[in-house]
Amino acid sequence: MKPPRRVDDENVLPAPDPAQVQVIRTYGPGRFVISEREWREPVLVTPVGSVGWGVTRAEQVAVANLGFLREGEAPAELLVLGCGARAVFIPPPLRAELKAFGLALEVVDTGSACRIYNVLVSEGRRVAAALIPL
């Protein structure tokens, strides 16, 4: 996989075929392009769909605002949390709650979350991304 290239202060990411799954095509300050749709808000992304997410800080993450990720025939098993410019500490009780909910958690900056999600979705993994814009 080629590393992302810089284009007008945005990162263009290599991705699987957007006709088959939801992929993160670009990200930049305050925005994402997921498959063919632009988002200017936090967003939850799965291989089959994306929805706006009412979380603006990683400290607001809770099982109650992640229900979308466990819906459908093949619910996500791994959540890649993109915290913005840098990763933040997620307390062990929240990690345990997410694990009991069926989600393993990877916490990284938003750019890394976009790249990790695309790689894992291209491998057919049951992954989701919870993205807070840069």
TrEMBL record:
Recorded superkingdom: Bacteria
SUPFAM superfamilies according to UniProt: MTH938-like (SSF64076)
Pfam assignment, any one: DUF498
InterPro entries for the chain: MTH938-like_sf, NDUFAF3/AAMDC
Protein name: Uncharacterized conserved protein, contains Mth938-like domain
Organism: Enhydrobacter aerosaccus
